[in-house]
From TrEMBL:
The keyword Ribonucleoprotein does not apply. PANTHER family: E3 UBIQUITIN PROTEIN LIGASE SIAH, RING-TYPE E3 UBIQUITIN TRANSFERASE. The keyword Zinc-finger applies. This is SIAH-type domain-containing protein. It comes from Urochloa decumbens. Keywords: Metal-binding, Zinc, Zinc-finger. GO terms for molecular function: zinc ion binding. Transmembrane segments: none annotated. Residues 112-169 form the SIAH-type domain.
Length: 288
């Protein structure tokens, strides 16, 4: 028998020459690009000590641009010197003159990081880009809010008008005719009264505070809702045996109070007048 010839294998789908490698090269590039895109979109969850994200100078949250000196001190934009525009700055942590340069690696890290809202225990489920946390917390509807009614511990998750309706169902309501002096006849122990302005259904809160010595402070708070679109003027009067105490002002709408309530203007009613009426206090309100 003669010697066997080498076995030949036929590969289909590509032709001999340069064309075959080009087909495989394009296929490999497409698969590589798809894999790379998949890795870029992949997100991971990590746990990090919040203290590591604080500025070495002010101990506040790191905000871009960030600078780092050769000794490792990282400072935020608020703690940078005028050299920040030139991508270099003086390190305020070092006792000796030390040049700090932009720390772009940490900037990219913070730009891609999201954190849960500080008020998640109150119901906020948003994940906030790290650089936007302060702005979000200042406007988050789930942030703890303060109530102007004396003795209220505050609330979260509702606007002030909804909180008064749900959290203080025992507060009396009085309908007030616009541009008319309306008698309220408040109780001596009453801390607040909701006022309805009949023409536009706008709501106001008349607060009888005890935050002043030897008396009460009467003030008006506009309860902001879809009906409260304008600025209203008010007048409060308390009639006593010796005369009339009066206060006029402008009631602006309040959606929520981020700080404890402090009236910009109030009518001071001494205890000698307030307590002289054992049942009803002759209080009059004028709204327009």
């Amino acid at each position: 028998m003669g010697s066997k010839r080498p076995r030949q294998v036929l590969i289909t789908g590509c032709s001999v020459g340069v064309k075959g490698p080009q087909v495989f090269a394009r296929r490999w590039q497409a698969e590589t690009a798809a894999t790379s895109s998949q890795h870029q979109e992949e997100k991971i969850t990590i746990t990090i000590d919040a203290n590591l994200l604080q500025c070495c100078v002010c101990s506040g949250p790191l905000t871009t641009p960030l600078f780092q000196c050769t000794k490792g001190h990282i400072s935020c934009s608020d703690c940078c010197t005028d050299g920040a525009l030139d991508d270099e700055s003086e390190c305020l942590m070092c006792r000796e003159p030390e040049t700090a340069t932009r720390c772009r690696a940490i900037e990219r890290f913070l730009a891609g990081m999201s954190v849960p809202c500080l008020f998640r225990q109150h119901g906020c489920k948003e994940m906030i880009p790290y650089g936007d946390t302060q702005a979000h917390e200042a406007s988050c509807r789930y942030a703890p809010s303060h109530c102007p009614i004396p003795g209220c511990a505050g609330y979260a998750g509702k606007s002030l008008v909804d909180h008064v309706r749900v959290g203080h169902p025992n507060v009396h309501h009085t309908s007030v005719r616009p541009d008319c002096l309306t008698p309220l006849r408040m109780r001596a122990s009453e801390q607040a009264r909701v006022l309805w302005l009949g023409s536009c259904c706008a709501k106001f809160l008349l607060v009888a505070g005890r935050d002043v010595p030897s008396g009460r402070s009467l003030s008006i708070v506009g309860l902001m809702d879809e009906q409260f679109q304008d600025e209203f003027k008010y007048r409060i009067e308390v009639v006593s045996k010796d005369g009339v105490l009066a206060l006029s002002g402008q009631a602006n709408g309040v959606e929520r109070l981020a700080r404890p309530y402090q009236a910009s203007a109030f009518l001071f009613v001494p205890n000698a007048i307030w307590d002289s009426y054992p049942e009803d206090i002759p209080v009059f309100v004028h709204l327009k």
